[in-house]
C-alpha cells in the first residue's frame, strides 16, 4: 500500500502515521526508512536506496515503512523511479509520502497512491453545497464556458472565491477513484487556482480559466 498525505508534516507524523503504521512515529524505529534531504531536490539515487531498504524484511514490526517526509522535493525522474514501488510495494511494506499539497506530483504518482487530505476535515459540505459543487465540477469537466463564467461572476469576491474553490476540492476528492486521472488533474487545477487566488491574482479571470484550460 502507498499513501500520499497532504498537510502539516508534524501533525501527519503524530496522527496519520500511527494509524497506518500500527505504531507511533519515532526516529529510532528499526523498520522505518526516512528519506529526507537538506538539499533542494530528492533524486533517483535517493529512490534507489529507498527501494533497496524497503525490500529487506522487517526486523521488529510487521511493516517495513519507507517515509518520504518532504515528497515535494522529488524530481520528475525520481517520481518516475518511484512508480513501481508505489504500485507494487514489496511484501510487508508501506510507502508514505508527505507533502503540503498535490501541485508537485505527476498524475501517474497520484494514481498509484491513496490520497489523504488532513486539512479538508475542517470544512464539511451540506447537501445543497454538495449538489452545487458537483454541478460546477461537471461544468469544468465539459468546458461549459457559459455556465462556468456565470459561476465565476457570482463568486468574484476573493473570500467567496476561495471558499468556493475549497468546496470544489473537497467534492472532487470525495469522488476520486484511484485510477481516475481526469479527476486527479481536476484537483490539481483547483489547487493551482486556490494558490493563484491567495497570491492576489484577478479573481474572476482565475475562476474563468478553470473552464478554459
* Shape call: elongated
- The CATH superfamily of the largest domain is identified as P-loop containing nucleotide triphosphate hydrolases
- Beta-strand level of the residues, as a percent range? 5-15%
Please provide the count of β strands.
Answer: 5
The first-level CATH class of the largest domain is given as Alpha Beta
Which H/E pattern describes the elements? EHEHEHEHEHHHHH
Spatial strand arrangement across the major sheet: 2-3-4-1-5
* First-to-last CA distance: 33 Å
How helical, in percent, are the residues?
40-55%
How many helices does DSSP assign? 9
Radius of gyration, in angstroms, nearest whole number: 19 Å
Question: Can you walk me through this structure?
Answer:
The mean pLDDT is 88. The chain has 213 residues and is of the alpha/beta class. It is built from 9 helices and 5 strands, in the order βαβαβαβαβααααα. The longest helix has 18 residues, at 181-198.
Defining key terms:
single chain; 12% strand; 5 strands; 2 domains; Rossmann fold
Provide the fold topology.
Layout: E1 2-6, H1 9-21, E2 32-35, H2 44-54, E3 64-68, H3 76-87, E4 93-99, H4 107-110, E5 114-117, H5 127-141, H6 145-154, H7 158-174, H8 181-198, H9 203-209
Parallel strand pairs: 1-4, 1-5, 2-3, 3-4
Helix pairs in contact: 2-3, 5-7, 6-9, 7-8
Short synopsis of the structure:
With 213 residues, this protein is an alpha/beta fold. It has helices at residues 9-21, 44-54, 76-87, 107-110, 127-141, 145-154, 158-174, 181-198, 203-209; strands at 2-6, 32-35, 64-68, 93-99, 114-117.
